[in-house]
Amino acid sequence: MKKLVLCISILFSSSSFGQISQYNQFPTMRPSHILDSKLTNISFALSLRVLESDYNGPLIRLRRDSDNAQQDFGWADNDVVDVGAIDAWRGAANVFVVTWYDQSGLGRNAIQNTNAFQPQFITDPTRPYFFGDGTNDRLDINTSIQILTNAGVNGSVLSVLFTTSKSQFSFGTRQPGVNTNRWSTHINWVNNRVYFDSGICCSDPVRWGTNTNNQWQQLSFIRANVIQTIRRGGTILRTGNYTLGRCTANNGFGILYSNGNNSQFATNRFTELIMYSTDISINNIQEIEEDQIDFWNL
Predict the structure, then answer these.
(1) CA distance 291 to 284
(2) Contacts of 215 (CB under 8 A, 6+ apart)
(3) What is the C-alpha separation between 153 and 123, in angstroms, rounded?
(4) DSSP secondary-structure letter at 116?
């Protein structure tokens, strides 16, 4: 009888361990994410996936238009925002972005508290995104561009977005009432060019490159002390000396428009936007670019 009980006990233990092991074979190991060990000099880290292993907050806060209720959402097992939970919560309602949470640990969230100005969120299971209506939709990071960059000069932005053609500012800042003083982008302008102005506009042709419209792209914008570079899909689109001076504006950073310029709103779709206050190393740039391209299947 004792032998029978012992055999049953061993069999049950073996079976139980087998069930657990398929979920967590190495319980002491932590998953890795692209911004692990890459938070030095970061300005903000916004994405519809988790970017950093120590981050434990939500990715996005949404409002549903059926009753204006709001709710935070984290990520599913695939590291992407939990679109299944969002769809269950919204039902037949449309949903709009209230807060895009900063994963850098600095709390520099992109926020829009006015319902009429909130971008609409789309629960695409492959590549969720929000988009602007081109009229007044926008999000704001209420931190001075002088802090987000190195005093209005250096900076690196790595993005995953959908290009559209319009007289639009896709993101950045512009000194109110001064057209030339800015740290911002057009993706794309009506002439099918992507523009990057990291100081006093306009230093042609360094600031622009011909670009494709109506397409998901990985785009990077890097400003060193003098050299300015636009990269697309891991390769250089345009580079050269930018010599017209630094941005001296003190206002914050806008998404789907240029903060400080209450016009020329964009119709782009956004999925990821990471910014550093310096021109980060080419190794880090390439590693983040490759990860963005692979993860989002660009």
Answers:
(1) 11
(2) 162, 163
(3) 36
(4) G
How distant is the alpha carbon of residue 238 from its chain centre? 22
Give CA–CA dist 170/271, Å, rounded: 13
Question: CB under 8 Å to 145, separation ≥6 — which residues?
Answer: 152, 172, 173, 183, 247, 249, 250, 251, 252, 253, 259
Contacts of 259 (CB under 8 A, 6+ apart): 140, 145, 172, 173, 174, 251, 252, 253
What is the DSSP secondary structure assignment for residue 11, as one 8-state letter? H
DSSP 183-202: EEEESS-TTSEEEEEEEES-
Q: What is the pLDDT of residues 72-124, one digit of tens each?
A: 999 999 999 999 999 999 999 999 999 999 999 999 999 999 999 999 999 99
Q: Give one DSSP letter per residue of 200-219, joined into a string.
A: ES--TTTTEEE--SSEEEEE
Find out whether 237 and 212 touch, Cβ atoms under 8 Å. Answer: no
The whole-angstrom separation of Cα 61 and Cα 70 is 7
Q: Report the DSSP beta bridge partners of residue 174.
A: 182
- 34-56 residue pLDDT tens: 999 999 999 999 999 999 999 99
**Residue 50 is inside which H or E element, if any?**
none
Residue 89 has, within 13 A of its CA and on its CB side, a CA count of 20
Asked if 42 contacts 106 with a C-beta cutoff of 8 angstroms, the reply is yes
Beta pairing, strands 269-276 & 155-163: antiparallel
Pick from 225, 232, 226, 241: nearest CA to 209: 232
